[in-house]
Amino acid sequence: MFTWLLILLTVVAGSCGDLFCAKGMASGGELTGFRPSHIGRLLRSIITRRMVILGAACDALSFFSLLGLLSRAQLSIAVPATAFSFVVDTLGAHFFLREHIPWKRWLGVLCVAAGVLLTVESSNGNPSARTPTPAPTAVQTYHH
Amino acid sequence: MKRKPLLTLKTISFLTIAVLANSFGNLLLAIGMDSMPSFSMAILPHYSFVLLTSPFILPGMFLSAVYMFTQLSLFSWADLSFVVPVIASSYVVTTLLSEFILGESVELQRWLGVVLITIGVAFVMRTTPNTHAEVEEIK
Is the ipTM of this complex over 0.90? Predict the structure, then answer.
């Protein structure tokens, strides 16, 4: 039961992290050039936005719950949760960020989630294989 | 009427930077961590010294930071539901790096995953990156 709670927390907190970061950045923050002043302005705008900081906190929560999950369950149980987060992210983007999701994008997201599942599951059986990193999260630094 | 291209050069450039920075950042971190001693509090100063002087760890961290900020910047003009699946291409790049640079044997199942991710990313790339702007234009 506790394992399932951790899976839920990992996925939901990770997706909330993405949603808050996206919401926070939606009000501006485009990089307009590559001069140090442009990059400095972007960094300042990122670290001073409450939504982005909240997103980072959610990502941290997701990271620690994933660590807790890995200490209790095998990677083959933890990994499907990370692949499922692509679907939760897309649902969240539709319902909370009011993004219009065309059927092609849905099909793409489902293919990506299935592909990630296969890729990471096969790495699990091969100890020498490098597990690719999760693309989903902006702030989370853990390699799913 | 001439149709506007779905992807601008800026979006393609930022997506490419994010995918490559993520993949190469993780590759460097993985190589660097392989040569680290086992962690224990007793050897913390030595561990920190080896970590900070490794030729792989700091560049790997720098590339991970580039990935993080590039993705956050992308969120300011592109949909979350567009950016997240497209950046999953880094799984494909990581698999290619594992096979061709690190010489790891990549299983058939993983190649199948790579094909599925590529198909998925191709589908997502066929959609408009910012659906809010699209709705505004229709109005």
Answer: no
